[in-house]
Amino acid sequence: MSLASNNLSGSLPSASTYWQTNLHCLHLGNNSIDGVIPSSISNSSNLRELHLYDNKFSGPIPNNSLGDLRQLERLRFHQQSPTSLERFSLYYSEIRGQIPLGIGNLSNLNTLSLFGNDLTGSVPRTVCYLQNLQVLALDQNRLTGPFPECLCKLPELGSVSLSYNQISGPIPYCIGNTTSLRNIYLNSNRLTNIPMSLWSLKDLLVLDLSNNSLVGSLPPDFGNLDAITLVDLSRNRLSRSIPTTVGDLQKLIYLSLAFNELQGFIPEPLGKMISLESANLCNNILSGMIPKSLETLRYLKDFNSFMGNDELCGGFLFRPCKARSVHHSWRSRFLLIVLVPLVVPLMGLGSIVVFMFMFRRRRNNVPTQVESLPATTILARISYIEIERATQGFDQCNLLGRGGFGSVYKGIFANEMVLAIKVFNLQIEGAFKSFDTECEVLRNLRHRNLTKVISSCSNMDFKALLVEYMPNGSLEQWLHSDDYYLNMIQRLDIMIDVTSALEYLRSIMVVQQSLYIAT
Asked: Which residues neighbour 461 within 8 Å (Cβ) at sequence distance 6 or greater?
């Protein structure tokens, strides 16, 4: 009997007479049933399939009571079941607490799916008693501790997913012995090291280690993953160069090495990856020419490398590599040697005049711009989900730049407001203090040449400031890129505006110091 997806509400009856049935299948998934799961459900001795996922159950899962269901073959809600059970799925069920040690008694289990819950603690060692286990899906919980090394001893394990947890430490070396592995999803954890043995998994199809704290380099053995179709190592701290053996990954469809610290050239053999459809190498320290060999990749649809790699040039559909002309170099030297020494004293004189004027106004008790402007008040905080949607999941296409304590994204919100979102990297020492300092300082600033804080998002795992979006690019881009040009008047205007903002900040400091002395 199936009553799934009918918006049913209320609770299940607890009287034992209700469950004395000949039902073979009971499907109540995807409803709004609440309350506890009654232990009297064990009276349905002929039940073979029981589906209670995607409801609002609370309280403890019945212990041992379902052991009387000798015919049960498929269960999708409960922690203990007969030893003949082969599939155990309890995803998105709002389950809290730790994975019970008794899970290891389900000796015939081949699939364990507990993703999308609120499980805590570490993965129990008893999971490693499941010698027939093929699929382990524990992602999207709050699991901690190291990667369970004993998983390497499961001979049938083909897919392991522990993504979006808090698993820490190195990936164990023994993972190279698990030759049955086809899919590894360990993204969004706190892993620190990739063992050399991992590159020996010749039958591996998917490897997602993105958004961790991985350090080190990619070895030449990277090219040994003969069957691999997806590799995502983005948002880590990998360094050195991309090995030329990457060209040996003939079946690779998706490659992302974005947001690392990779250096050197993009290897020419990248053009040998005949199956490649998408490659993302942005936000590294890559330099030199884009290999022309990429033009031969007939399936390549997306190639992102220029963003954050300012020294890259050339290639198909990209900015050309060009040397600075003699005339351009002479003009630059002229500006530096002749004009700058003239401009700097003028700026200093202007600053002195402005400061004296403002000091005189303060002596005459005339309100200054600093005193007359009210402090900016941060609006109601915006949730993490709103920010994630506005940035399309923090997509690299919306990345505006990176700073000492995080990254800045462009965000378009549901009300069509466009903001710049500074996301702090809380793994960097001093990030918490920097966030608090910027909130305190920027909320009191009002000046046309200083960006205004619109809102913020702050919790233990995520901190961000939302400021006005400046659509014309960065000042560094306009001053130092060959693709942009500013004449002398425009450059002087920028100097004056920067001086005005600095004078405003200094005036605030003078006023605050005066108030401190007065008190």
From this structure: 426
Contacts with 26 (C-beta within 8 Å, 6 or more apart), sequence order = 1, 44, 47, 49, 50, 51
> What is the C-alpha separation between 311 and 266, in angstroms, rounded?
11
CA torsion 493-494-498-499 (nearest 10°) is: -40
Of the candidates 90, 17, 84, which has an alpha carbon nearest to the alpha carbon of residue 51?
90
Is residue 70 within 8 Å of 46, Cβ to Cβ? no
Instruction: Quote the pLDDT of residue 73.
Output: 52
Please state whether 314 falls in left (phi above 0), alpha (psi between -120 and 50) or beta.
left
Using one digit for the tens of pLDDT, what is the confidence trace for 154-209? 999 999 999 999 999 999 999 999 999 999 999 999 999 999 999 999 999 999 99
Three-state DSSP class for 457?
A: strand
Q: Name the burial class of residue 195, with classes exposed (0-12), middle (13-18) and buried (19+) by CB atoms within 10 angstroms of its CB.
A: middle
- Asked if the model's pLDDT at residue 139 lies above 80, the reply is yes
Average pLDDT, the chain: 79
Rg of the chain on CA atoms, in Å: 30
User: Is pTM, for the whole model, over 0.85?
Assistant: no
Q: Which residues contact 105 (CB under 8 A, 6 or more apart)?
A: 80, 83, 126, 129
- Asked if 249 contacts 228 with a C-beta cutoff of 8 angstroms, the reply is yes
Residue 349 confidence (pLDDT) above 90? no
Closest CA to 281 of 320, 238, 329: 238
Name the phi and psi angles at 402, rounded to 5: -125, 145
Please, which residues have CB within 8 angstroms of residue 204's CB and are 6 or more apart in sequence?
A: 181, 182, 183, 184, 225, 227, 228
What is the mean predicted confidence (pLDDT) over 466-484?
Answer: 74
SS3 track for 141-189: CCCCCECCHHHHHCCCCCEEECCCCCCEECCCHHHHHCCCCCEEECCCC
User: Which of 163, 172, 115 lies closest to 138 in space, CA to CA?
Assistant: 115
Buried b (16+ CB within 10 A) or exposed e, 450-466: beebbbbbeeeeebbbb
Residues in the chain: 519
d(CA 318, CA 275): 22
Residue 34: both structure tokens together: 């609440």
Please tell me which residue, 442 or 404, carries the higher pLDDT value: 404
Angle at 261 between CA 281 and CA 174, to 5 degrees: 90
Angle in degrees, 0-180, between the axes of helices 340-363 and 488-518, rounded to the nearest 10: 30
Closest CA to 50 of 6, 1, 108: 1
DSSP 449: T
User: Tokens 């170099």 appear where?
Assistant: 329
- Find the helix or strand (DSSP H, E) in which 421 lies: strand 418-424
How many CA atoms does the CB half-sphere of 247 hold within 13 Å? 12
Angstrom distance (rounded) from CA 466 to CA 106:
50
* Cα–Cα distance, 213 to 427 (Å, whole number): 9
| Residue-level pLDDT at 359 | 47
